[in-house]
Design goal:
By secondary structure, the protein is α+β, with helices and mostly antiparallel strands. It has 25 helices and 27 strands. Among the domains are: 81 residues, Alpha-Beta Plaits, CATH 3.30.70; 99 residues, Calcium-transporting ATPase, cytoplasmic transduction domain A, CATH 2.70.150.10; 127 residues, Rossmann fold; 108 residues, Calcium-transporting ATPase, cytoplasmic domain N (3-Layer(aba) Sandwich). The strands form five sheets. It has a seven-stranded mixed beta sheet with strand order 15-27-26-25-16-23-24, sandwiched between helices. The longest helix is centred in the N-terminal third of the chain and has 38 residues. It is elongated, with a radius of gyration of 33 Å. The two termini are 61 Å apart. Its main location: membrane. This is Cation (Heavy metal) transporting ATPase. It comes from Rhodopseudomonas palustris (strain ATCC BAA-98 / CGA009). Keywords: ATP-binding, Cell membrane, Membrane, Metal-binding, Nucleotide-binding, Translocase, Transmembrane, Transmembrane helix.
Amino acid sequence: MLQTRDFSHYVKDVDGRIAHLDLAVEGVHCASCMAKIERGLQSIPDVTLARVNLTDRRLAVEWNKGSTLEPGQFIDRLAELGYKAYPYEPVRAEVEEAERTKFLLRCLGVAVFATMNVMMLSVPVWYGGDLSPEARDFFHWLSALVALPCAAYAGQPFFQSAFRALKAKSVNMDVPITIGITLALGMSLVETINHAEHAYFDAAVMLIAFLLAGRFLDQKMRQKTRAVAGNLAALKAETATKFVGPDEISEVPIAAVRAGDIVLLRPGERCAVDGTVIEGRSEIDQSLITGETLYVPAERGTQVYAGTLNISGTLRVRVDAAAEGTLLSEITRLLDHALQARSRYVRLADRASQLYAPVVHATALLTIIGWVLAGASWHDAIVIGIAVLIITCPCALGLAIPAVQTVASGAMFRAGVLLNAGDAIERAASVDTIVFDKTGTLTLPELDVVNAAGIPPEVFDLAGRLALASHHPVAAAVARAAHAKSPLPNVVEEPGRGVRTVFGGQELRLGSPAFCGADAEANQILSEDPEVSVVAFSRGEQRVVFAVRQLLRPDAAKTIDALTNRGIAVELLSGDREPAVRHAAAALGVSAWRASVTPAEKIAHIEALKKQGRIVMMVGDGMNDAPSLAAAHVSMSPISATHLSQATADLVFLGKELAPVLAAVDYSRKAMAVMRENLGLAIGYNVLAVPIAIAGYATPLIAALAMSGSSLLVMLNAMRARRVRRGAAPWK
């Protein structure tokens, strides 16, 4: 019977040219595993990307759509490399990870039980100076009775991994560990049979216990980081209530919803789409996007996003984007990218870990041969070789950088910062100059009516209702400020001038001052506040002018001041008019500013700063800022920037506040400091420990303690990357 495998359902299209597949891979737990998988798949013709995310053991594969490659070929290739793989499904992956965590915990419990009992049985042998040979043999046999079956069970994570690697004719980090454990147990059994004085059951089971403790803690830390992405996934609704007729609704999969459809959002439901409210009133919680923890009113014209929680009323929403096109999906993709991206430091640690197995095997073999040539017995030489195998385990080196990156990425996300480049942390840590764009970056993206208090309520209401008929952003600001819900009837739009209608026997107009006959009133407002934009409203002989402008982000001045206190120079480059830029610079205390700057001039200024030796971060939004974002050493954009899939920014920040820019700098500096500390600890450990082991001063027991202690030390030190000094508080 011919059996075929169809995984086409799991393949995603990227830009019409590239096919993308996510696979869950079992048995990946170190840098050498990642490197072997990536090299093995990248050697296949037409494969453009193979990237392993160690946090959730997910493999992303991309290849040219025009090729003959099929998903099953990647699974077969992974099997040849010694890894079992299957299409990645979040629910299944979570179940598998939960089972693995339980399995590691059971193994750790057995190993700890064996360690305590074998150590207890070893005490009489160590300190019993007058212990008879028969009694010593009795304690050794009891130790073997406890250690051998316990090691066989508790050592499964290492033994299985090593077996798969050897079956695939390769080696990984678990191969020398398995050899060391097996040699220690085997030699101890031989020594016990031959009534020898020493046995090493205690060292073998203690090594297993400490290795499992490190692996279990690593697993829990990764689970905690994955929980951030899991929380985002929980916000995604799988279905939506769609209008299939004027008064008929149907619950459909989110994949069946298209832009332009109308969906119903009931109280207590999470929105499944990005869209605009067209009917109804309610309160909503969209703190993920805006950072505002209080409920905000939602009515006609309110923008809602996937993941938004509807609190009270029923809303009808016109769909702007659904499924993978929503802002929530974009945030999730950025977070995934941050977790799987690797910096220069990570790649350095990866390469060092890849050299581990052959170097350690050669070192242990040469140590044994050297001691034999020096006159030592084969027994003593092998014991020293076992100690070398154990003490040189690169767990500390393999964890040194990824652990910090994982902790820092999660902490930065909680502070409202998403990484979009693997080395963004390294580059952001060295920044000494930040260049800000103004519009949409230092200011909020939406316009606001600044003279609303002086407008009569009745006039404001009519102007807002008339403004609903216009798509102009200034008119939209008037409608939003007036809380307008119902548009006026029979509105006529005159392109480039404004909108008009007849209501209550009077002609109403909203538009340019000339269109409404309000030039005098507009000139007076502009003379008092030249950076505002104006829109006029007329009702018969009555004239009113609305002053509109973008407001600065609420914490912009405080954030700029904090950056300056950290020794970072702040500049403002904007394409906006000089009065508006001067006003913003004065309000923020920024002395270095330029207005009416073109994109080319922004790039030239950034290049000039770089020639002066400055490390520049550019913070901006909009397509006109994309070239300058790319020109800077590191770049950052607000979530409200132009479509994120086209963004060139290395980091993206959420919410209405500017504090995430400060947090990005602080967390990056702290993470880099901890990375260097961890590399120093890992390298220093090996520089000190390996010569001691080769010289024969470290027994297998001491080697197990030293190796495990170094791994725990770098993991505990990595947790310090979650804390920064006061002033870069978590995103509010």
